[in-house]
Amino acid sequence: MQKILVYVSLVAVAFVGLAPQMSRAEDWPMWRGPRGDGISHDPEVPTRWTSTENIVWKVALPGQGLSSPIVSADAVFVTCVIPETQSRHLLGLERSSGKILWNTLVHTGPIENQHKFNTSASSTPASDGQQVYCTFVDDEKLVVAAIDFHGVIHWKITPGTYFSKHGFAASPIVCEEGVVVNGHQDGSAFVVMLDRHDGHEIWRYKPETDLRSFSTPLLTSEGGTRQLILSGAKQTIGLNPENGTLLWFAEGPTEKVVCSPSVGHGQVFAFGGSPDTRAFSLKLGGRGDITQSHVVWTRERGMPYVPTPLLYGDYLHIVDDSGIYTCMEPKSGKVLKNLRKGGNTYSSPIGIDNKLYSFDDTGKCTVFENNAEYSVLAVNELNEPVQTTPAVSDGCIFVRGEKHLWCIGRRP
């Protein structure tokens, strides 16, 4: 990993930074895109590439990380950590060229306890088109910061202490006038909404159990009620986004969760991976404890711990950590297809124009049709390890590799 210490570098040009503008296509402003469902309708994204063909640009990153890139207006944002200096950074890049326009030092502090495959920059940032919100932890606390499109920190707060044996990885999401952060942990767990403008606390929810989980919340109106759905610490819950009150809960699917939930067909689909892998589907619309009343189906075999499955229309596509692919009928839980897709996988599959794009840890991306037949259209190699989830915007796929940020797009 290239390790170059850069604290804050501003490009001295007539226009400094990345001023918010109207984007030319749908942005990808947070983890799994604008709706949190991992789906883009962009028809111009290529299905084939190599490490040299259909590559718009490739940029070396100045630090480590497992966060995914996001795209807002004419900018791409990604976080990095430089372990030697204990510094956590947010980078702003020009979308068209990949040029790093600024590199803002957001936080410095002792490196936290973490899983051997985790990093101190594994939380994907989120943007509302005016600011970028990022979260980091050190060995004592969780830090949330808002940075504008010029790389200037507008506010930075500590919503609570943080301790987890495996570190931190949950991503913030923009919700109404706030930013929601999942602070599930082995210490004093919390879920909090902070005001986007100044960082003050709007509400706080205290989970029933203090236990590490890294699922990113999902904002949805599926089922007729606007709610935040979150899995982790032995429960799947629905919260009122206005005040953080608990609407409903179900025990499970497991103790610890990394995957984000999915919603559709009047159901929520949740996946857990520790101590055993298990998934379930819940019928939306309940109140209070719905553990016994609203479970539609459960499954254990072939379920993931890290990669979030993709609900794409009438199909639920699952790639587990070992590369086993399962296609299910979401309403019933019936297995339609089960096979080995590839090698070990941390990246979550995404959907683009009725096709699926799924990277394994080696950087090999399999593109296949959104059906139950696993109809492969292409297998592409970047020749660089990839353990993050791509962003999609304006005909391009933005992929964070082990050492580089890639922009994949059609070339004449």
Task: Note the main attributes of this structure.
Thrombin, subunit H; Lipocalin; 5-stranded mixed beta sheet; 3 domains; 412 residues
Write the SSE topology.
Layout: E1 39-40, E2 55-60, E3 70-72, E4 75-82, E5 87-94, E6 100-108, E7 126-127, E8 131-137, E9 141-148, E10 153-161, E11 173-175, E12 178-183, E13 190-195, E14 201-205, E15 218-220, E16 227-232, E17 235-239, E18 246-251, E19 262-264, E20 267-272, E21 278-283, E22 288-289, E23 295-299, E24 310-312, E25 315-319, E26 324-328, E27 335-340, E28 350-352, E29 355-359, E30 364-369, E31 376-381, E32 391-393, E33 396-400, E34 404-409
Parallel strand pairs: 1-28, 18-22
Antiparallel strand pairs: 2-34, 3-4, 4-5, 5-6, 7-8, 8-9, 9-10, 11-12, 12-13, 13-14, 15-16, 16-17, 17-18, 19-20, 20-21, 21-23, 24-25, 25-26, 26-27, 28-29, 29-30, 30-31, 32-33, 33-34
